[in-house]
Amino acid sequence: MADTNLATDRVIGKARVTVNGEVLRTEKGVDLTLAGDEIKEIEGDYEAGFTTEFKSAELTCKIMVKPGDGLQRFVGMAGATVVVAFDTGLRYVLSEARQNNRPKISGKDGGAVELKFTAQRCEEMLA
């Protein structure tokens, strides 16, 4: 008999992003790269090794801008708490996050504005 509980087969499909408690109206396609050591291979003539370099977490999203939305608050934003909640119940918290892009407003493609947050700490919260 087939398992009727498909919840265990669910994969990430949507994400909700909040910044300091404010829910952002994001377009599809939120990208999160976790913080941690990035390995760089070192190759020699007869041996190989590696070094590591710590990389901050990066969250990139595009927000939909509607009448009355202010974007100036994102310029130079630092010390923010950013939460990414996926529809599978998986959540990540970026502590002391910074918003690295100066928001670029364009009249094309629905006026979406890209934001890029980085943080040294990115904690996984399992549901």
TrEMBL record:
InterPro entries: Phage_Mu_GpM_tail_tub. It comes from the Bacteria. This is Phage tail tube protein. It comes from Lacibacterium aquatile.
